[in-house]
């Protein structure tokens, strides 16, 4: 096929003649290949973002007696954002997910990295089984995972609570101080194996010659891990960390599902819950939109901040 | 591993003669560390598998046994009774939810894969003004989580009258920015220009080239996108929760959630929620484990080269 191309290429008269329809064909192809995706992207991702921004900058003004007359949309500047940020419950929810992220993200990434390195070092037998076992929870929907762990946290139903009591421990997974970390456990359980798989993929791409050279130089297994493997899987670790940060700040389903089991989860426990509550319980779409935008901005700031930190320490 | 060692011996016979075992110390750990390693892996496996084990055991129990007996041992198993109760409850609504889940995930994943792979290929192999800008916009889309978009989508869709229809959940599922990103990276590496040029000289149209040559060359990337999108839609909860109010349109996740939230009024649903959870989890677990290698292949392309 390549020979065919090269024999035709040198200044054949066929080329310029086909050039005009070819260009139109290419333009059509670009439209056809890229068009549908771009349209849907615009409709379901770009447009909602702009719409959220618009909603967050406007408010509803009611006129007439007792505000029952006509309603009209007015531009209110940043007052929805001011309202959101002066709402103690919302600010507390932001603080809560940030605390959650600061603890849960490192724990999960360390666990995922450790599992990946252990699997990499283990002999071939059993590796497949273990890898599948760790990855399995990723296939369980968050709702089901939360229901499942909810049962495992409930005294009277849970063998874990029974076991703790048998050993003399008072396990109160749903108490006010613990419930955030019980949620962290659900998230870790679900996604550690997935992150492990990303890291394993990068481990597999390391040039085997490096290990060869290291073993000839008499490096210990630990030295191979710290001097070769860890530095080389750094991009995968950074990538999984950024996505985990974005994900954890969006916490919603887990607290919503655990809520009936405990009195410690309020309707504004996380920013997403607060926005949901604002939109559907209070019917204040404008404030809800402002809260969504604020959350997206915080997530953005944190993931870019982390990337920047990583890049600086690399230099 | 063994092959590597052989090569090393051939390359440096002196080192090999001196102490053939020492050299493999980096790759083959000692007996004690191997035992420790296996023990660590086993403990982790217990952590990840125990809830699933509990689910399987709990799904076999009657309501009295569920609360009255230990959660780790079988007692008077009646799995089939429980499963039948789930399937028959409320005129067989669970089956409808399963079909809905399959519809949302199946149609969504297939369409999203074809569209995003086409877009990625186009971004890789055609040059036009604004290409990089467009790619960067799509890339930003990868970073935006679905839950952040759900509320604005609801506001938008309620203006358009799409709320509480199949389209409300299906339309957003048709787009995979990650797919376009992976598609571009993969097409750059796996679709040779010479092949495209040859096909064009043979008179093949661009769409035929895409359908017959490109899609086949990009199959590994397409499978990865398909799997991610399928799982993503299947597991999605926030979007259906706010978009749908008619139980006939619910996917399984939302359906089980709705059952679970009324268990205080209808305690017979406890066993139904547990058995239903088992039913909804099993097919996906099988798929996850058996399709693992596709997963890793795609991740290598996507995360490592990117």
TrEMBL record, chain A:
Cell location: Cell membrane
Listed Pfam families: BPD_transp_1 (PF00528)
Membrane-spanning residues: 28-54, 97-121, 133-153, 179-201, 232-252, 292-310
Region: Disordered, residue numbers: 1-21
Segments of skewed composition (Low complexity): 9-21
UniProt keyword terms in alphabetical order: Cell membrane, Membrane, Transmembrane, Transmembrane helix, Transport
InterPro entries: MetI-like (IPR000515), MetI-like_sf (IPR035906), UgpAE/MalFG_permease (IPR050809)
Domain ABC transmembrane type-1 as annotated: residue spans: 94-306
Protein's membrane topology: Multi-pass membrane protein
Source domain of life: Bacteria
CDD domains per record: TM_PBP2
Family to which the UniProt record says this protein belongs: Belongs to the binding-protein-dependent transport system permease family.
Protein name (Swiss-Prot/TrEMBL): Carbohydrate ABC transporter permease
Automatic annotation (TrEMBL), chain B:
Subcellular locations according to the entry: Cell membrane
Highest taxon of source: Bacteria
Family annotation (InterPro entries): MetI-like (IPR000515), MetI-like_sf (IPR035906)
Keyword RNA-binding part of the UniProt annotation: no
Region (Disordered): 1-27
Classification via CDD domains: TM_PBP2
Transmembrane spans: 35-56, 102-124, 133-154, 166-187, 207-234, 269-291
Xref: Gene3D superfamilies: MetI-like
Membrane topology (UniProt): Multi-pass membrane protein
Pfam (any one): BPD_transp_1
Domain ABC transmembrane type-1: 98-290
Keywords: Cell membrane, Membrane, Transmembrane, Transmembrane helix, Transport
Protein family (similarity comment): Belongs to the binding-protein-dependent transport system permease family.
Record-given protein name: Carbohydrate ABC transporter permease
Organism: Kineococcus mangrovi
